[in-house]
Design goal:
heterodimer; A: 180 residues; alpha+beta; 2 domains; 7-stranded antiparallel beta sheet; 4-stranded antiparallel beta sheet; 11 strands; 18% helix; B: 262 residues; Cytochrome Bc1 Complex, Chain C; two-stranded antiparallel sheet; 2 strands; globular
Chain lengths: 180, 262
């Protein structure tokens, strides 16, 4: 650019022989084109957004039957449904309750330590009594209990979509404890 | 209170955010309009000026541009499919079925498939056009070679993608297709010259180490072949294609823009 110091030259004005649409007409086509482009883009992005949410999930059901109360030994914490559904069954003399296997600190899965009679979380060391009450480590509140009841055929019926938190006094709710 | 567009435009385009992204204003002189293209990473491969005769649809058929457009749709739809597809024998076919039955807009997979067909067609049309207009002649002969390489890679993308549905059609098509690699000169165990590569009675090129084995990761189309074709289809070949396309577009500009009619 030898003459880059000079003033930029203005675009050449349209000459007589060049046919051009009027300003008003041009702007209306311009607006239509942009509106169409915006609509198509919006449609494409909403399609992609919807694509990311499948219509079918292959996850365990939130309600399930867990056999008969007699299948569980009194005084024991049962881990047979831990891996599939994330629930511990605790059978006590008066009945039983279902504990969530999600640590209330940051969501890891604690282990039931039979010999030490406690739930212990491997991530940060939170400890819980058999009842689910926290007593050591950073966990701020007790493990949650799920709705437990009996189905028509006498099997235990768990509904994981309804949970009971001790610190809210919800463990007094009869649905949080199955009296046998 | 009325909305003054020009004041709003001034506030936006004079601000630091705008100026940090765009070095040049869209002014009316030729120099800044050229710089607006040249200083943009997405545009700078493209010629600043295109000859009017060269850009005529009847001359180019827009086949190269259509090929690139279809390639972009294949990249977008392909990435979306990768969110659901798992390249293992256990899941591959079921995931393809799920893409149609369980996932909204099951047409996404069809879009990818039709796009693949369309790209093969447009790339061939592009090659035909370049040949018929004599655009392969100097100084464009190197770009012709790159273009032929891109054509082969397009076919390989289709070939590797063909196996991924993991149905009977896919498995036997790739079985038949990969059998051609047996006849590779020197590197295929049934190919010409392979028998020369032997030490005494020991064959150096056999069915366990030839070109076909390298392609399939085994002696037949199995789990290893599925994973290899997936990696080739989604990562390895597209990476090479993108690099060669960049060179291809850049060379158009360096070779004097789209060729004019003779």
């Amino acid at each position: 650019m030898a003459d880059s110091q000079s003033q930029p030259t203005a675009i050449k004005p349209l000459t007589e022989e060049v046919s051009a649409p009027g300003r008003r007409k041009f702007l209306s086509w311009f607006a239509l084109a942009w509106a169409s482009f915006a609509a198509a883009t919006l449609g494409a992005f909403s399609l992609v957004g919807r694509f990311m949410f499948p219509n079918v999930l292959f996850e365990p059901k939130s309600t399930f039957k867990a056999g008969y109360p007699d299948d569980y030994e009194v005084g024991m914490v049962d881990s047979r449904w831990k891996e599939k559904y994330g629930v511990w069954f605790v059978r006590v003399a008066e009945g039983m309750y279902a504990l969530s296997t999600v640590c209330t600190h940051l969501g890891c899965t604690p282990n039931w330590l039979e010999t030490e009679d406690k739930f212990k979380c491997p991530c940060h060391g939170s400890g819980f009594y058999k009842s689910g009450i926290n007593f050591e480590g950073p966990a701020p509140r007790p493990l949650e209990r799920f709705k437990i009841g009996l189905a028509d055929d006498g099997q235990i019926l768990i509904d994981k979509s309804i949970k009971f938190q001790q610190e809210k006094g919800e463990w007094n709710n009869p649905e949080s404890f199955l009296t046998v | 209170m009325s909305f003054d567009f020009n004041t709003f435009k001034q506030v936006v385009t004079k601000g630091q955010i705008w100026k940090s992204m765009f070095r040049h204003g869209y002014t009316t002189d030729d120099r800044d309009r050229a710089l607006a293209v040249l200083t943009n990473v997405f545009f700078h491969l493209h010629p600043v000026k295109v000859r009017k005769s060269g850009a005529r649809f009847g001359f180019t058929w827009c086949a190269g541009g259509l090929s690139f457009f279809v390639f972009l749709t294949l990249v977008v739809s392909g990435i979306l499919l990768m969110f659901y597809y798992r390249p293992t024998v256990e899941y591959a076919y079921n995931d393809i079925v799920a893409l149609r039955e369980h996932i909204p807009f099951g047409i996404m997979r069809e879009l990818h498939r039709w796009g693949a067909h369309a790209m093969v067609i447009t790339v061939w049309i592009h090659m035909l056009r370049v040949f018929m207009t004599g655009s392969y002649k100097p100084p464009r002969e190197f770009n012709w070679v790159i273009g032929v390489t891109l054509l082969v890679l397009t076919m390989l993308l289709s070939f590797t993608g063909y196996l991924l549905p993991w149905d009977q059609l896919a498995i036997w098509a790739i079985t038949v297709g990969s059998n051609m690699a047996r006849a590779t000169p020197f590197f295929g165990h049934e190919g010409p010259g392979a028998f020369l590569l032997a030490i005494g009675d020991i064959e150096l090129v056999h069915s366990g180490d030839d070109a076909r084995f390298a392609l399939l990761g085994g002696r037949f189309v199995g789990a290893a072949a599925l994973l290899r074709f997936y990696i080739l289809h989604c990562v390895a070949i597209p990476a090479v294609v993108v690099i060669l396309m960049a060179v291809h577009f850049w060379r158009i500009r360096k070779d004097g823009g789209i060729s004019g009619p003779l």
